[in-house]
Design goal:
single chain, five-stranded mixed beta sheet, two-stranded antiparallel sheet, 7 strands
Amino acid sequence: MTSKMVFKDNAGRKVTDVRAFVERWLADHPKGRIFIGADSKVKGEYVKYAIVICLWDVGKGVSELFAHTMLPKPADSFSRLWNEVTKAVEIAECIKDLARIEIHVDINSKPGYRSYQLYDASMGFIKSFGYEAAGKPFAWAASCGANRHCQ
């Protein structure tokens, strides 16, 4: 895996080879689905970015691998949101040949919300890599999974 992010499993154990972990999980759960979610939270002069790989065992529940990183706060909120999108795609690119992946980002699909200004660009960017994409309110991997890890 080319990403420098350190992932952990549900129990908080470090996952040294995310690709191998996902590959084994898919072998054990052949009907499983993969969702990647991204979110961020400003913390003073820094931003905490969280990424989750949600492994959905259809009919049985979701397991997560998660990682977070702190980076200097960008000059504007749009740059912060765009960083979420690119980080999610970066992680998806590392495991893209293992299964179909849907990427969820914390960008609203409804006009009237500030993040909506990035919605079309974000969905287009994600889809240009061949992934399915979802924004709020349908982006549960971002709104629930990743949000929990950036608090």
